[in-house]
Amino acid sequence: MLNLYHNCIKSIPEAIKNLQMLTYLNISRNLLSTLPKYLFDLPLKVLVVSNNKLVSIPEEIGKLRDLMELVSRSTHCSGSCIYRGVNK
């Protein structure tokens, strides 16, 4: 579990890809405008990205085979920002 809630983060460092046991990531209430592709190589089950400056969720999110919950409230996404391919 990694909780980076409300830290004024503008980008996620590439070193996060070394956390190969990470299943829960909360990066809500930051200043993120994009999600890096290397984030989607992690074994995440829960990804919380609410209250950022995101305008879209990258297609690479489909690589998160174990993802059970994607929380994306109050982002700058227009229309349907939630990726429809999240596993059930």
From TrEMBL:
SMART domains: LRR_TYP. It comes from the Eukaryota. One of its GO terms (cellular component) is cytoplasm. Keywords: Leucine-rich repeat, Repeat. SUPFAM superfamilies: L domain-like. InterPro entries: Leu-rich_rpt, Leu-rich_rpt_typical-subtyp, LRR_dom_sf, LRR_domain-containing. Gene3D superfamilies: Ribonuclease Inhibitor. The keyword Nuclease does not apply. PANTHER family: LEUCINE-RICH REPEAT AND CALPONIN HOMOLOGY DOMAIN-CONTAINING PROTEIN 2 ISOFORM X1, PTHR48051. This is Uncharacterized protein. It comes from Sphenodon punctatus.
